[in-house]
Write a structure and sequence with these properties.
alpha+beta; eleven-stranded mixed beta sheet; seven-stranded mixed beta sheet; 32 strands; globular; Glutaminase GtaA; GtaA_N; Glutaminase_GtaA; 6-hairpin_glycosidase_sf
Length: 687
């Protein structure tokens, strides 16, 4: 059973007495806490080492680059540090951290006098392209008396130029200005490199840090020591701009705001900040015209190509965003508990922002696109076998979004630019989606053909959009022909688990292709085409059951590869049969695997296969979704336990050692990847 974990850290010892800093966690202590996580470039985290303490720690980009972000608060003239590591002031006592699907909520005790609640809200608008198109997050800070008295409270926050460049030697420029309701700082690299990155951080675009223009507001732009010391000494800022533009690391320019909250009593006094990035063009894409063309940020169509309009609208939308997020949080929590208990809710609610944080929304309202970044593994764009494990959260929240993910892949390949007869692996390196005119993408032919057919049918079934199947039928049938050639006896090739290397006759890969053929049979029927695929799929399945199953054991199970009776693996690809409601794979196969998994489970997971003790959290939830009740509960409990216990300290990894809970020894370190959307596998199944 789940219960909040209490972490206690002895912060100081004096005269034999301990000063204790304690924080509770709800629903669990995560590996890292999402702060502002909405797109690949607005993607900041608090690393938990092992505790998730915001005071005296720097927020970081998913790469671990420090993102200078300092929070201070003055109570009755005494200054305390509630975020960041630059301050020499006393650190507040963090009482609690709670995460939901859209929020990370910290509560701090300030000198026993005031409770400060800071909420990092990164809303997810799966049903609203206009709102989802903005690369901004909210930060709400609320103060109220903790002792029944009235206290003078001043609140401070700044961000540094580190947000604008992964190359700290780059020069930046900045300005302070106002709209009718906002004060804002804006800063950007002097040398804008459109579609460029340094250390995975965008080399183009304009950053905005905003807050409301209330009467107690002061502000300042200058070096970190000057601005922060100004607040620490005077509890207000100077309303001045240091106009010496310089490199990010040259006297570290910071952009600060301070709010005088006045006399704070028993009622909450709230101030709101927003932080985000505006880019005119977001992706360079070779689509149906075969030429690399600019894809505008989708925000432009909704906000008249006007930065000030966009930042005003986002700030002004806070009440709606907060209410919408509360409803979404409630829905996901309730649906998750119903499907898999509180342990399952602790998993799904941690993965929502991470999943959407890899997506960039571009195009126009009449032709929207969603481009996905394969964060941390190799930064590919539109990787088919990364979209596939992330697909459950998309189907659960709004299946229409699936089309906007698939469209770039169809357009690039239907242009004739891709020469191979199988489906393309990806479209290049984010944010440049140029495709592979030479056909030299990472070769996963069977994997990607199966994925594309399955995902396209899943989209059409959930939305009723059979015209999409008709439109793409020629290339879908081309990929299905490849499945006929290679599914039953897969050649030596990579699967999505490419870190494990190539292997011939992969049992799990074969069943994906065979299910793909059965899915193509349904596509043919839905589009009034002749069905040449269903009978082949039926025949292949019968052969596969002979080749794939080891019956010479007390607990029969499928092997990793045909004939290797000393092997086994997670047969997660049978999930697609249930997702599409095909009723194709024998229920006895599902039951057999479910029973077997209990016999091979390690401390934190069932291993992916016998080549390592490594596992994948997304595939484990695919397996849980189609397992029997006891095995489903076992797999969910092991992953939930891992979330609380793991020694990994970055944005949730999907690849870890099933025995130690750490990153795989001598293996890749995956972090912040959107594949964690696969944890919604239970919720994506048809009701």
């Amino acid at each position: 059973m789940w219960s909040p974990k209490i972490a206690v850290i002895v912060a100081a010892m004096c005269c034999g007495m301990a000063t204790v800093r304690a924080s509770t966690y709800k629903p669990a202590r995560p590996p890292a806490v999402p702060l502002t996580v909405r797109t690949p470039y607005l993607n900041s985290w608090l690393q938990c080492e092992p505790e998730c303490l915001l005071p005296d720690n720097w927020p970081r980009h998913w790469t671990t680059q420090i993102l200078g972000w300092q929070g201070l608060v003055a109570v009755d003239g005494k200054v305390f540090n509630w975020m960041g590591k630059a301050s020499q002031n006393t650190v507040v006592n963090q009482l609690s951290l709670e995460y939901t699907s859209t929020k990370s909520i910290f509560v701090f005790d300030v000198d026993g006098k005031v409770n400060l609640t800071v909420t990092f809200l990164s809303p997810v608008f799966a049903d609203d392209l206009s709102r989802q198109s903005q690369q901004f997050s909210y930060i709400s800070a609320k103060a109220k008396s903790a002792d029944g008295g009235t206290h003078d409270v001043r609140l401070y926050m700044d961000v540094s130029g580190e947000w604008a460049s992964g190359d700290l030697s780059q020069k930046i420029t900045w300005a302070h200005d106002k709209t009718n309701q906002l004060d804002y700082h804006t800063f950007q690299r002097t040398e804008q490199v459109e579609y460029g990155e340094n250390g995975e951080i965008a080399a183009w675009g304009r950053w905005y840090f905003t807050t409301g223009s209330d009467s107690g507001l002061s502000w300042q732009i200058g070096s970190d020591q000057v601005v922060r010391n100004q607040f620490a000494t005077n509890q207000t800022l100077a309303n001045t701009v240091d106009d010496t533009f310089r490199a990010v690391q040259d006297n570290w320019p910071v952009f600060g705001f301070s709010h005088d909250l006045g006399d704070v009593g028993n009622g909450d006094v709230e101030r709101l900040f927003t932080l985000g990035l505006i880019q005119d063009n977001v992706i360079h894409f070779a689509g149906i015209n075969k030429t690399l063309d600019a894809v505008p940020g989708l925000w432009q169509s909704y906000f008249n190509h006007d930065d000030r309009h966009a930042i005003d609208a986002f700030y002004d939308d806070y009440q709606y965003a907060a209410a919408h997020s509360n409803e979404l949080d409630k829905t996901i929590q309730q649906d998750s508990v119903k499907a898999g208990g509180q342990d399952y809710a602790a998993i799904t609610t941690l993965t929502v922002r991470q999943s959407f944080g890899a997506l960039q929304f571009g195009g126009t309202p009449s032709k929207p696109y969603i481009f996905l970044k394969e964060i941390s593994s190799n930064s590919d764009i539109q990787t088919v076998d990364v979209i596939f494990p992330a697909y459950p959260i998309v189907l659960y929240l709004n299946a229409t979004l699936a089309r906007y993910l698939l469209d770039p892949l169809f357009e690039n390949q239907e242009s004739g630019a891709y020469p191979n007869k199988w489906a393309e692996h990806d479209l290049g390196t984010f944010p440049v989606a140029k495709g592979y005119p030479s056909g030299n993408d990472e070769p996963m032919p069977l994997e990607e053909c199966g994925n594309m057919v399955i995902m396209t049918l899943a989209y059409a079934e959930r939305t009723g959009d059979t015209s999409y199947l008709k439109k793409h039928y020629p290339i879908l049938s081309q990929w299905a022909e490849f499945l006929v050639e290679d599914s039953l006896i897969p050649s030596n090739q990579l699967s999505t688990d490419d870190f494990a290397g190539t292997l011939a006759n992969q049992t799990n890969l074969a069943i994906k292709g065979i299910i793909g053929l059965k899915a193509m049979s349904r596509i043919a029927n839905l589009t009034s085409n002749s069905d040449n695929w269903g009978a082949i799929a039926d025949e292949y399945l019968e052969h596969w059951k002979v080749l794939a199953i080891n019956n010479d054991t007390d607990l029969p199970h499928t092997t990793l590869s045909y004939g290797d009776k000393n092997s086994h693996g997670l047969l997660y690809n049978i999930y697609a049969d249930k997702l599409l409601d095909l009723n194709f794979v024998d229920q006895s196969i599902f039951d057999m695997q479910s029973n077997f998994y209990q016999s091979i489970a390690l401390k934190y997971a069932v291993p992916l296969d016998t080549r390592h003790t490594w596992t994948k959290s997304d595939w484990m939830m695919f397996a849980a979704a189609v397992a029997g009740p006891d095995t489903k509960a076992l797999l969910i409990n092991k992953l939930a336990t891992w979330v609380s216990d793991t020694t990994t300290n970055r944005a949730m990894t999907d690849l870890y050692d099933a025995e130690t809970g750490g990153y795989p020894q001598n293996g890749p370190t995956f972090v912040a990847r959107p594949v964690v959307g696969g944890t919604f596998a239970l919720l994506a199944l048809p009701s």
